[in-house]
Fold this protein.
Amino acid sequence: MPAQPLNRICYVEDDEDIQKIVRMSLERIGKMTVEVVSDPLQAIEAIKAFRPELVMLDWMMPGMDGPTLFRKMKELPGVRELPVVFITAKASQTELDELRALGAAGTISKPFSPRDLPEQLRAIWSKLP
Amino acid sequence: MSSPLAAPISVAPAARSAGARDGTDPQRVLADRVEQLYSQMPQGVVVTLIIGAIATYQLSDDRIRQLALFWWAIVLLVSAARGALYYGYRRSAHKLAEAKQWLRWLGISALANGTIWGFAGAVFFPSRLDEQQVFLAFLLAGITSAGIPAYAASWPMFATYGAAIVLPFTYVLATFGNPLFRELALLVPLFYLANVGIAYRLNQVFFSGYRLRHAYGRLTEDYTALNKRLEQQLVELDEARRQVEASGRKLALFAERAPIAVLELDADGRIQRLNQAAEHLFGWSSRELVQDNASMKVLVHPEYHAQFDAQWQQLIATRTPVAHLRFRNPRRDGLELVCEWNVTPLVNPEGGVVGVIAQGQDITRQLEAEQMKKEFTSTLSHELRTPLTSIIGSLQLVNSGVLGEVDKDVLELTNVAERNSQRLLDLINDILDIEKIESGKLTLMPELLALDELVAESLVLNKGFAERFQVRYEARGTLLPVQVKADRKRLLQVMTNLLSNAAKFSPHGEPVEIIMEDRGAGVRVGVRDRGPGIPESFRGRIFGRFAQADSSMTREKGGTGLGLAICKRLIELMDGRIGYADREGGGTVFYFDLPKHGAA
């Protein structure tokens, strides 16, 4: 379990409505600091700049989907160590397992409950080495 | 001859009973002889009367007129009696069975007849003039010889008849006192014996004639029966042939007009015949394929040839029909179909494969439809869930109060909105689940887990339900520490379903009890409610899709009507079974049984 509590989160998501909900949930309920990135192509730059403790990725996005971005992140030192949580509406169990095998820290399925989202992330955070 | 016994040949053999044919032949020969004897009787009587009348006229002079008339009276009496006997015989219905009796009566009549003439000889001969004596002697000789044809069918009868005439006459001749007459008295018995001998011979001839006739009759009878049987068998054979032909035609028609492709192949896979549907489906004419001795492989995509060969070898080796083989099949025009094949080897009584019937169904469109359904499901999954995520998320944030105080009426409405959005989401999830299960695409992730811990966890997770419907979840007794191999997420889904159902149907303030029972190789988890019970009319379809006893309940308490259908299929996928029972004192218990891990 990491020493410090989970605080800084970067969220890559193209849907503005969901961005808002996640931001409110994490800021208002979870009291966290959130950086939202709409364009997955700019995500890596934003992550480097924001220096989050955990990254949340949407699965389906225009331009580049979550798993591709995830694989790209895995190639970059300084970024590849970050825990990544997928938040997705469409994922088969085998695909999720595949992602876990690649090193994803966890998955949260859409629709998620904004009330419980901070708690779910903290639970994943607490299980990290 | 009108008697059936006298004319056996003309009688239809079928009318005869088997007993009469096989067992009573001598009786029938006898009956025929009796018939022959009786048939001569009318002539006999008439001749007797004529000759008797002539004799009476000739012999009745004044001296013995009374005696002659007396004799004539006797002649009339005996003739009447014989007539009556003849009449009786003709009317008799038992000529065959009573042949012996009729023969006896005839014997008596012959004796009586003979006695008349014997009496005439004895009484009238001594008192006559010479010429009258000659007349009488001539008469008696004639009468005696006339008896031969009349009684030829029975020589003893002739002997009796003749003796009755000859004995008194011989006696009269012997005692007359005339040496010529004495010599005659010696000759008459000799003549008599000679006549009896002739009668005997005739009798033999008659007898063998009768036997021959009967043998012939029987032969004819047998022949007719044989013929009839043969005819019957021919008719049956013809009928059988027609039936075979008809069923053959029917079968051919079935294959020919079947909407699926039907091909007859030989044991090497060469096409022998194909029906119209096959011609249309693949674009080849029957003639082309059959004449070229084309292999079934012509109709199979090269990519599948190896698989085809392997399947074919197995088919010939095992001689067992194979169903649901899927191949890509090229058409003559280059287009491709996907067909599902049922292949049946035709095996002869010696166990050799003489041919193979292949039935193919074009499932290209079905596969396309499945693909479309898959795409639709995917769309449903993503495109509906994404906006719902925003709706539910927003409403939850409002309702959670983190955004500040909200007006009470507004809050009530946003709660309604959240609840109904959740219902919509549940429905989508349930439909996706059912679709996945029914298309066989649901893959479970079985793991070894402690069932008691999972049950306890489900009680915590569903606490919200209990609170909403104002009931309590209570574990009754201890939860047994049993390990099962099951999909954790899916088993929790089943528990959630059962617990939420129980909460919905329980009266406020009542407990919903959760029990665990050891059942030998399995373990049972039950959820008991104190609800109204399950209506009789609903019991048959409770595990069906969109099953709800009362549709007004949907509006009031939520639920898609798919929950139990999903539970049933999930539990069955985990090798368990689900059921329910009435609970004593009202309410229902829903349970599922799962095999214990490690138990056989």
Notes: The interface with chain B takes residues 15, 17-18, 21-22, 24-25, 28-29, 60, 89-90, 93-94, 110-115 of chain A (CB under 8 Å). The longest strand of chain A covers residues 8-12.
